[in-house]
Design a protein that fits this description.
Elements: H1 2-48, H2 58-65, E1 75-77, H3 80-86, E2 91-97, H4 101-117, E3 122-126, H5 128-133, H6 136-144, E4 150-151, E5 157-158, E6 163-168, E7 171-176, H7 188-191, H8 194-213
Parallel strand pairs: 1-3, 2-3
Antiparallel strand pairs: 2-6, 4-5, 6-7
Length: 214
Amino acid sequence: MLKNMVKLLMVTSMEKTQNKKFFKNKIEMVITLTIFVLCIIGFIYLGKVDFSKDKPTDSVKMSMEHPQVPEDNVYEYINASQANNYISRSKMIILFGISNEWTGYYASILNDVAKEVGINKIYYYDFEEDRNRNNATYQNIVSHFNNYVLHLDDGTAELYGPTLIIINEGVISLFDDETSHIHGSMKPQDYWNEYNLNLKKNTLRVALSDYKGS
């Protein structure tokens, strides 16, 4: 009799332990499945979200970085690698710029003439960071235009912004870095008086018209 009671207690204890263990695993299973389902829902939602709506277009970005340029402009951003490849093309236009007012004013003038002539895309490459790092890509670009860029007293060649480069039929038809070397207290709004502005527009008009017509 005592032996049967002990056996009964042991069985009951085991059943309670098993039930307790099963209950714990069930909760963990439910939690795991819930998290899994939520993750799937999250991935599906993220897959449907159009993040490009939050990213400004190149033209808007250009206007944000250079307030002198209207939002409706012709600029398309390219990176260092693209610029390095594009300079070997037989036909292309790239404006090399940095984050300053001189670039903004020049880009605005160029945009006006480009639209007048009928050119709807000009590549824009902000090379300031690459120049500061003096990386291999920047060095290669400068070397490519060695006969046009400024050489310092120590022989170092540097590219400054803004610089407009037009390559037409494999020939550099225009390398314009006129306002990239202006120092001192001169302001771009003062430099671009009526005379200089008209002169620059005429120069750009001829170069861009020749580029489009060829």
